[in-house]
Amino acid sequence: MILDSKIPGGSIEEKWTKHKFELKLVNPANKRKFTVIVVGTGLAGASAAASLAELGYNVKSFCIQDSPRRAHSIAAQGGINAAKNYKNDGDSVYRLFYDTVKGGDFRAREANVHRLAENSNLIIDQCVAQGVPFGREYGGLLDNRSFGGTQVSRTFYARGQTGQQLLLGAYQALMRQVAAGKVKMFPRREMMDLVVIDGKARGIIVRNLITGELESHVGDAVCLCTGGYGNVYYLSTNAQGSNVTAAFRAYKRGALFANPCYTQIHPTCIPRHGDLQSKLTLMSESLRNDGRIWVPRKAGDTRSPDQIPEEDRYYYLEEKYPSFGNLVPRDVASRNAKQVCDAGLGVGSTKQAVYLDFADAIQRMGVAGVSAKYGNLFQMYEKITDEDPYKVPMRIFPAIHYTMGGLWVDYDLMSTIPGCFVLGEANFSDHGANRLGASALMQGLSDGYFVIPFTIGGYFAGTKLEKVSESDAAFEDCKKQTEERIHKLLSIKGHRTVNDIHRELGNIMWEYVGMARNEAGLKTALEKIPALRAEFWENVNVLGSEGSFNQNLERAGRVADFLEFAEVLTLDALHRKESCGGHFREESQTPEGEAKRDDENFCYVGAWEYKGDGVAPELSKEPLTFDNVHLATRSYK
Amino acid sequence: MSGLNLTLKIWRQKDAKTKGQFETVKINDVSPDMSFLEMLDIVNEEQMKQGKEGFAFDHDCREGICGMCSLVINGMPHGPDHATTTCQLHMRKFKDGDTIVIEPWRAAAFPVIRDCAVDRTAFDRIIQAGGFISVNTGAAPEASTIPVPKADADRAFDAAACIGCGACVAACKNASAMLFVSAKVSHLSFLPQGKVEAKKRVLAMVAQMDKEGFGNCTNLYECQAACPKGITVDYIAKMNREYLGATVTYAEKVYGKD
Asked: What distance in Å separates residue B221's CA from the closest CA in chain A?
């Protein structure tokens, strides 16, 4: 398939402005004739639903939680970037753009990233006006901090709960539109299928999670704002309910899935403690601003950390990357943690952890100073590990956190199915192969507040949409297929629980498709995944009925999709023989063990097209060009 | 530390219309490092292996911020640990041989959906009544146009930290939602951006709260004790002041003389 990204012409600075002008408009009185379905109520979904409703469109908003306020954007801690240059330290839209393209290891689209940087300032304005209580200085003006992988202070924050506060801002805007009658809210609904009529996305099938009833919803466009797929690894920093189902259903209906192998491993998570653990907890990487990362210099050093003198400590990031030190981007920090642990230098009972030490910071700022900055994170750490990080260094280890890959979209955020738009983490476009800290919140809100309101109008104004209804054959067919799938899940009555199989899938993915990947391992995964999938469909035990609140059935459907999706992810990782960003192929590294890109052969977006069950998906390529930020080896030394 | 052997009494209820009852389950060798919900995951796995459906309970982020998890544990919403959600409660807070009673939030305005999962959409409707600042996308002035004293911003944040879990309602013998409502009223009215609509907001949100069937506040402070985010009853006092002021100066304009 030829992937037309529809990047507008002109210089990088004028593309978005020009495009906004060239997009056709829907006149105010006509907007109310259109219905937009928005799936998901995280930063992207809530901001899109609210903004579209404010414009006059009718919006139907769906979420799987009991309230739209609970989407997993709420858990983002650190902050949100914007190019305000309030610190007068040399920041600009162009620098934010530059840093993000470089940070993404030259696998993002320049035009999208520039637009993101332009919108960043508008987002802060909007959020402040909504009452988001950002951190401020004593003069009453907004404070900034520097954040993983950048050398300017451009990160706005609300203590360690920035995602929560931004999401509540968007949620409140959404609630305002519900009260105004422009948004109809459907909580506890899960999207089961995308309905495509005459090649256009015209609605969705959802399951009412309370009654089990399948509902058809008609719309003139569908926006998928359904987040990432990190839970394919079972253990991740995602919420328990986070899943790939909505995106994967769209993939099966013709949307291409781009760069699924770009998964981000976050360096500062609380290490695993046992086999029955259900999730990993992230601690904001803002901790790396003041904490120092180290391991004992000698393997097998069992002294307690306070007994290890300076000369026996290996501050590996500071030594290897003197100019960025502990603030190197996430992929570099994570990989180095793995390397020192693989070399036997890891600490703690599992030896799969490194120290993050605040002793120096406490000496410099005092306990009160450290507590003012990181109090809630320290408290969270103590709650989980039963250790006091003011007294002993934290132990951290990388964990699956964010997924840069997602459904392929053009510049207008439209997938390869006309009328099916994809926003936020669910799309692929802005972060390339690695996302920088404090950029996810920025992208979710940019897509929802400041991109989709323009581009969806262009679609409506330029598209002839026939009238369709819930009783059309396409809706009935999708509903029937969903029903059959549910019946099948409930009829297997095997011996393994859904969780048990999901955990096994996670182990396969972490072992062979994790932080470092190689051809033999990926091929092993490609044998193990289909075998496990077969086991699932023969031997899983899903209890309860379809017509009730059945959390086991919900989970089963999601794991079934993960079992298919895992294979697409692994195929992508196998085909991309270079290392870039979060995707590290052991075959492609420099003599010092750094990731080695192969721009000659892999400077493209790899997008996978569903070709039927049991048939290999087909790869299409969108070439990437870098006219402004020139291809260069990332170096943080 | 070795594992804990526990007796659990967990609430079973098929749906809102059916009567529920406690069911007793034994669980052995629970790791003290496990979270409370991970312990329940194992209970449910065991139930399913015996061919019985697991106990339904709400949860999502499992890091104490989404507000989805609930559970009254031994009579205390979110359990015995101070300022902690159920998902952040760890088994090291319990002793070997303990009996633990687990039940849903109990309030008329939060009907049970199944077992320990309840319907909290009443909270969304209260926010819809006025828990926002009316600013359309694109209409915002430059962010630093209005300085906000740091103390006000900090106090607004303290109130905005509410996760909307409903523990305050579950803890209150009147099932009052005053702590939840006052947190949002306070968050927005501490900020200059939110002052414009403050009077209308407090009247509308309180009216909706009453309509949803939440009880009145009788100053027992159970809500504050149960709140996983440390929201204090000071905000209730603030809301009462704002409400009184709004009634005197504003209610007439909104609701007419009667």
From this structure: 24
Å between B210 CA and nearest CA of chain A: 17
First to last CA, chain B: 66
Q: Which residue in chain B has the smallest CA separation from A445?
A: B137
CB contact under 8 A, A126 and B132: no
By C-alpha distance, the chain B residue nearest A126 is B140
Single out the catalytic residue among A159, A189, A207, A330: A330
| Low-confidence stretches of chain B (pLDDT beneath 50) | none
Contacts of A138 in chain B (CB under 8 A): 150
Q: How far is A306 from chain B (nearest CA, A)?
A: 24
Smallest Cα distance from B217 to chain A, Å: 25
Give me the half-sphere count of Cα atoms (radius 13 Å) on the Cβ side of residue A109. 27
All residues of chain B having their beta carbon less than 8 Å from the beta carbon of residue A550 are 53
Do A258 and A406 form a contact (C-beta atoms < 8 A)? yes
Which A residues in the span 75-134 are in contact with B, Cβ-Cβ below 8 Å?
A: 75, 84, 86, 121-122, 124-131, 133-134
> What phi and psi, each to the nearest 5 degrees, are found at residue A285?
-75, 0
Cβ-based contacts under 8 A for chains A and B: 221
For A59-70, the DSSP string reads EEEE-SSSSGGG
Q: What is the mean pLDDT of residues A66-86?
A: 96
Task: Calculate the dihedral angle through the C-alpha atoms of B142, B144, B146, B152, rounding to the nearest 10 degrees.
Answer: 130
| Three-state secondary structure string covering A514-571 | CCCECHHHHHHHHHHHHHHHHHHHHHECCCCCCCCCCHHHHHHHHHHHHHHHHHHHHH
Query: With contacts defined as CB-CB under 8 Å, which chain B residues touch A171?
Result: 127
The residue type at A511: E
Amino acid, res. A41: T
Listed residue (B135, B131, B137) closest to B162, CA to CA? B131
Is the per-residue pLDDT at A635 higher than 90? no
**What b-and-e string marks burial along B163-178, b requiring 16 or more CB atoms within 10 Å of the CB?**
bbbbbbbbbbeebbbb
Cβ–Cβ under 8 Å, residues A456 and A36: yes
Measured over the CA atoms of residue B236, residue B238, residue B239 and residue B244, the dihedral's sign is positive
Of A607, A601, A599, the C-alpha closest to A629 is A599
Q: Residues A340-349: contacts with CB within 8 Å, 24+ apart?
A: A340/A295, A340/A314, A340/A316, A341/A295, A341/A397, A343/A299, A344/A299, A344/A300, A345/A295, A345/A296, A345/A297, A345/A298, A345/A299, A345/A314, A346/A295, A347/A295, A347/A296, A347/A305, A347/A395, A348/A271, A348/A395
Please say if A597 is a catalytic residue. Answer: no
The ipTM (two decimal places) reads 0.97
Considering only CB atoms, B84 lies closest to which of A383, A497, A544, namely A383
Q: How confident is the model at residue A160 (pLDDT cuts 50, 70, 90)?
A: confident
A126 and B135 within 8 Å at the Cβ level: the answer is yes
Contact (CB, 8 A) for A283 and A377: yes
Letter string b/e over residues A47-81, b meaning 16 or more CB atoms within 10 A of that residue's CB: bbbbbbbbbbbbbbbbbbbbbbbbbbbbbbbbbbb
Pairing of strands A155-156, A183-186: unpaired
Nearest by CB to residue A240, choosing from B60, B133, B193, is B60
User: Positive or negative CA dihedral for A544, A545, A549, A550?
Assistant: positive
- For residue B254, CA distances in Å to A176, A584, B246 come to 18, 62, 10
Reported as a single tens digit per residue, the pLDDT across A509-533 is 999 999 999 999 999 999 999 999 9
Mean pLDDT of A497-507: 97
Position A329 pLDDT exceeds 70: yes
